[in-house]
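ENTRY TYPE: protein
WANTED: fold as tokens:
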Amino acid sequence: MVGGYEWKIWFFPNGKSVGVYNAGQTSLYLALRSNTKDRVLCLFEIHLIDQSGKGNHHGRSLFNTFPPDMTYFTLGHMDGLFYFIKQDCLEPSDYLKDDCLKINCSIQGLISRIEKLLLKNNADIFVKVAEETLIVQKSTLAAHSDVFRSLLSNAHQQHNEIVIPDTKPRTFECLRLVELEICAQVSRLVWST
């Protein structure tokens, strides 16, 4: 249980697909296991632990990426490494000890329902990106973007919605993360497994 949700780590020693198997690779994924309709926004890192003590762990971390490569998890959604590590490299490695692997996964983020609570009372504009509508604060958008500052000037103040048709919701999330960081200073959920 992490952040109020059940998670599952999937390791596929023969890869997750025929192509990965034929390439002699393994696959490693994180999945949301809880039966929920929530979309859980988070960053995660997942590593095979070097059991020799040398600290040469192998994996993926999204904590230090810019822009943050956050993932929305829904029930059954998996994200991770399709081509994780070559099968023939795993057996003689320091990752495998007594026929066991140790996998470490850390999850950091904001649950979407908490996000809604944080923004509900302060949000004052809707931003429609493709088919997704996001609730945000005009002041935050204006403070961090000259384009939005101009768009939200007095001449446009009566508008309660901005439509951005030529971008993807995931792209806009980076700007939205600035707003969430302000909220996060007060209420950040940090989870680790």
Notes: The first helix runs from residue 18 to 22. The chain has six helices and 13 strands. The chain has a mean pLDDT of 75.
